Amino acid sequence: MKYTVGIDLGSTTTKAVVLGDGGEILGRGITNSRSNYAVACEVALVEALIAARFGLVERAMAGLEADESIRRAWLEQLQEGLRLGQYRAQLDSLGAVLAREARGSGLEAGVREIMDALGAEAPQLYGPGTARQSDFFRDLSGSRYRHFASIAASGAPGLFDPLVGLFDKSILEVENSPAAGEFSSLVRAALAGLDGVPGALRGAVEEAAAVPLELAVSVGTGYGRATLPFPKEQIRSEILCHGLGAHAMFPRTRTVLDIGGQDTKAIQVDPQGIVTSFQMNDRCAAGCGRYLGYIADEMNLGLHELGPLAQQATRTVRINSTCTVFAGAELRERLSLGERREDILAGLHRAVVLRAMALLARSGGVADEFTFTGGVAKNPAAVEALRQLTAENYDGPTLNISPDSIYTGALGAALFARRDWQRSLN
Amino acid sequence: MGSQTREKLTVAGIDVGSSAVKVVLFEDRPGAPGAMLLGRSERIRRRDPQDVARTLFDACIAETGLTAADLAYVATTGEGENVGFRTGHFYGMTTHARGGLFLDPGARTVLDIGALHTRAVCMDGRGKVSSYRMTSQCASGSGQFLENICRYLGTTIADVGPLSLEADAPEPCSSICAVLAETDVINMVSRGITTANIIKGIHKSMAGRYLRLLTSAGAEGRVLVTGGLAADVGLLAALREGDPGKAARFTVHSHPDSVFAGALGAAIWGAFRVRKLQSKGVDLALGGAAA
Fold first, then answer.
1. Is the pLDDT of residue B247 over 70?
2. Which of A25, A59, A63, B113: CA 20 to 30 A from A409?
3. H helix or E strand, kind and range, residue A139
4. Considering only CB atoms, which residues of chain B are within 8 Å of chain A?
């Protein structure tokens, strides 16, 4: 089967969407961005192709004589088994780099102890229904490494810092080396780890693994287009991709707001999803996802914890600072004055959305329907603030948010790739 | 005039900044310049600034063998208004001017580069402020900005100065957001630009911003750089190399105790107030200031 792919290289995450030859979405993949852009794109594509293969497995399983729930359970076990295999392979390469970096530093024993513990606990991190802090190796292994490093250093307080420093150094090399493992070997290993697998499931997996997937056209987008690892004619602007992607997800979309890690875009599109006007933030992180990320760092919280905390606010504190760094200082000051963390957070979320409202107004307002995309669309407090402010200012347009909104740009890019492909066939 | 005004006074100055607390103990001598007995600086690092101020203050007193009762005045400046044991508070603009003048009597402008804000204060030979300009709204080019960049580059604020001097082809950089700089810096690193050239480019961009600030404040003659970044030799070099057409009206200087300018100024103003009140016959519960 021929496929087209769109890759969106964002400042925080890199996303890929793979479309089948009928234009249907075969799979989506995501990874954290890193200094080697080509590797980030490759990993996102590998992830999307793995998801595509699982889609094929699911289709092949439809013929199995088993309940829907049982089929689902098998699929999930397979997926988790494959993730565990990937995690272990990456742990191995991390262990090798760490061992090399630690040589002669006196930290060898500590590193070995941590890596043994990481390997031993790996099976508990994966399995049906397990909640992981992150699916990115850097984040997941990093937080577990720090946990075990603090145990390893409990007798020697000076040990923790150099141990963690060693990880920070090594992880760069690990994540900048090409992705290891491909679907068939990974999934076979996962199958081998399951008990009582019926022959029919094994057959479905083999069938899906054997389907040839061949790249037809790829299109890339993302910030810093000049440095994207794609040929020039295969690059489209982020704005166009987000407009088209949002149109594909919600065909009645006329206004798109995308709040990503580093930029906020307000886009107006016509009924065909073609951009008619847009506004974007300029040289300033205020009102971007990174604003909330910076605040989360200041509070020692995970990014996903911010929204739910802000929703527990009893009042919304007015934040006076525009600049992210100043808002961080204002946060500390307000906390020391005894204001509630939740109330300040509510104010910070409102501040982000207020910045977006200004961009929306400059781009031509909010038309019905209104689609909110980007990583911040996952934040319930930001969504709530946006809903409230658009209702106050633009008589309550229909607000669309897709659970896959983070892939909007990549989807748009994949659709452009598909158009290019079809044009080349004619 | 009471006889007490002829005596030496020991006073303390506490400058609570947004990233560090500075404490000085100062001996004020009538008819003579006075002397800084001790100066200490401590990073706040997400602790409660009030606690850091108290601890550092206590440590300074203990180090000199004084007791709180020996102090005629405990003056605060910066964000020190809420320090519970202070006698009085002075505004940052006046304390930096007075402290800068003490460190460098020829200076007519103080350029205070802090963690969040930078200000240019022009003054006369007695420390009276004649004009004042401050950056606002944006942390681009601030001390915090430089510190963030250091973190992204894996170096420390103490090392950037000498590193910057090693640059051979500074990478031009516009005034960028302190937060978004992370990506810009990663971009530069992935393009193979050396740390020294990145830092020098950033120093030049910061210097350009400060030179414009000085020009708009009307700075002339000697400019004394104060605040935490006064010790950054790379930034000082960039300031001196800056646009000569505009910079020609002033020369840029630093002092080893520049970081204490605010605290020193507060202490000196504190002593001044004590003497003024004494001359009017008001005794400021002398000796019990910090009890």
1. no
2. A59
3. helix A137-152
4. 18, 46, 48-50, 79, 116, 137-139, 142, 144-145, 148, 174-180, 182-183, 186-187, 189-191
